[in-house]
Amino acid sequence: MEIFLEALFQLISPAHLFFLVLGTLLGLLVGVLPGLGGTAGLSLVLPFVFGMDASHALAMMIGLLAPTTTSDTFPSVLMGIPGTSGSQATVVDGFPMAKRGEGARALGAAFTASLFGGIFGAIVLTGAIYIAKPLILAVGFGEQMLLIFLALTMVGMLTGANALKGLATCGIGLMVGMIGYAPATAESRLTFGSVYMDSGIPIVVVGLAMFAMPEIIELLRRHHTIAEEGVLGKGWIEGFKDAFRNKFIVLRCSVIGCIVGALPGLGGSVVDWIAYGHVVQTSKNRETFGTGDIRGVLAPESANNAKEGGALIPTLLFGIPGSGSMAILLGGFIMVDVHPGIELIKTNIDLVYTIIWSLALANVIGAGLCLVLAGQIARLTTIPYALLAPFMLVLIFFAAFQASRGWGDLLSLFLLGTLATYMKRYGWPRPALLIGFFLSPRLESSTYLALEAYGLSFLQRPGVIILLVLVVLSAIAAVRFKPNEPSAEAMQGLHSGKTRTGQLMFTGLFLAFTAMVFIDGIQKKFLAMMFPVSIAVLTFAMLATLFVMQARRAGPGTVFHDLDHDPTETSTTNIHYLLWIAGMLGATGLVGFPLALTGFIFVFTMVKAGGSVLRNGVLGVSALAFLGVMAHFLVLKYPAGLLQKFVDMPWWLGG
């Protein structure tokens, strides 16, 4: 009891509360900025916590970490841009709700689910201090491998009518994730001599490319505002009620978030998709998922907040980071002379409870602030999108540039974003590619480690057997899932000759990429060859089957119909806006990154939104000011152009 009182008094002390609220405000800001997230936010504050009192530093870091998975809902729901890698699944149903004027309802439900998930994670973490050690130690390489397979089998449920198409796309993602050094032999794969590709494509670039660019282009093509009616709606209370009506979904997905978050290195970007796949698999009326179903918002939002509590379990108990943000948090712990592990539990348990309760309190403060500020932030949906879109493009290219701070990030975002735009057009599920990409290195490493440590005997482990049964059941559920038939209007667009030809060409592109992976793989040593060759063979078989079905005009439910497909979309408008973005990158090569983005905003708003030269000039200069401030605080040197070679400029302009 004395320990609990010490922790409580420390929690409610004015200094601790001040730094906790300060960190929470920073976390809200970081979450609202698309693509940054807790990892970038923690990296930003680390220099400032050095030398601080341990409890104050921990309060600020925990305060920053907790609400990012709440405030990241704003860009996910209102703009169709994942605020962080853990809010990608929220886009699938949250953004369609905003487009039909139900943004308030989606946000109300999301914040309620996030609040519950965060508090639930803190409660689980409290009990885990005593009981989680044997459970975590029981999870070996074999269990990790089977858990990844379980996540992959759920992909079939995220693809609309065609599980085969989803699994083939997942295979493409697995192969894209192989780019770089092979974990077993350190041989370069699919790099074509590029130094940038040696380390693989950063996850933030792939996430932004899969979801941000296609949605921005769609909104530019279709709407004057994000919400179709130009208003947000009055569904705050309805969203709150939705969370209570679906309380068992929120509870189950919070449990999933804690479990997956506690597995080191796995949680982060995949827990929301696992929760989303779970709620689709366990729901009877599934045809509305992907079109604005509130359950598709509740599931990932409760899971990604609960995962922070789960990820703190291995972080605090063993000093093993449960995610990328936890790795940064561990660095902050060490900077203030706090060393997580069994000794911390034995000698400083009151500090541990202060950390846990700070996590819960930060979630409450964060959710409350989101509700208070939501009305103002949500007004973004009523602004003409031609004014917002260039700023969104600046934000996503700025966020992508943080990955490795080089030209490769910008070019990768554009190329993968172009791919994702046509994946959306032809009904190839983008979530499947992202999941495959993220899990690829983990699946390859866990497979090698399981075989190296146990041989085939790992299949006899109880945890492996249980997970193997779940994998089989999940695969059966994916195959048996059959949604309702599409409308006649949708099918008219799907079966047009131009669309069918484009679909076949797109499938052929994937077949060519798969063949290239196979050819590259057979030239490597055995340990570097086995994984890419196996995945390439399986993926090629699925793609070839799909190609034949498409060529024969197979039934609509098995080939073309897809939750990710837009039958009214035209390639002409896609090319039009892709050329705008290509022009922005071309201007970057001429005048440098900051000046190019400033000019892009000015020219784009003049052409697409009209208005006065003064107003559009102010918009462009404001973007330049933002990039300058970020350059100062993050010590960034933006890509230079030809102009910087002839004109002496400040370093924050690429000089």
What does this structure look like?
This protein has 655 residues and is an all-alpha fold. It is 73% helix and 1% strand. It has 29 helices and two strands. The protein has helices spanning 2-11, 14-32, 37-49, 54-71, 73-78, 88-99, 103-138, 141-153, 163-176, 195-198, 203-222, 236-245, 247-262, 271-281, 295-318, 324-335, 342-347, 349-377, 385-401, 407-426, 430-454, 462-480, 488-494, 497-521, 526-551, 571-591, 593-609, 613-634, 643-646; strands at 180-181, 188-189.
At a glance:
The protein is built from 29 helices and two strands. The chain is mostly helical. Helix 9 packs antiparallel against helix 25.
Low-pLDDT residue intervals, each spanning 5 or more residues: 483-496, 554-571
Question: If strands are numbered along the chain, what order do they take across the biggest sheet?
Answer: 1-2
Shape, principal axes of CA atoms: globular
Strand fraction equals under 5%
**Helix amount:** over 70%
Largest sheet: 2 strands, antiparallel
Which structural class fits the helix and strand makeup?
A: mainly alpha
Give me some keywords for this one:
655 residues; mainly alpha; 29 helices
Helix-strand blueprint:
Layout: H1 2-11, H2 14-32, H3 37-49, H4 54-71, H5 73-78, H6 88-99, H7 103-138, H8 141-153, H9 163-176, E1 180-181, E2 188-189, H10 195-198, H11 203-222, H12 236-245, H13 247-262, H14 271-281, H15 295-318, H16 324-335, H17 342-347, H18 349-377, H19 385-401, H20 407-426, H21 430-454, H22 462-480, H23 488-494, H24 497-521, H25 526-551, H26 571-591, H27 593-609, H28 613-634, H29 643-646
Antiparallel strand pairs: 1-2
Helix pairs in contact: 1-18, 2-3, 2-4, 2-18, 3-4, 3-16, 4-7, 4-15, 4-16, 4-18, 6-7, 6-15, 7-12, 7-13, 7-15, 7-18, 8-21, 8-22, 9-21, 9-25, 11-19, 11-20, 11-21, 11-26, 13-14, 13-15, 14-15, 19-27, 20-26, 24-25, 26-27, 27-28
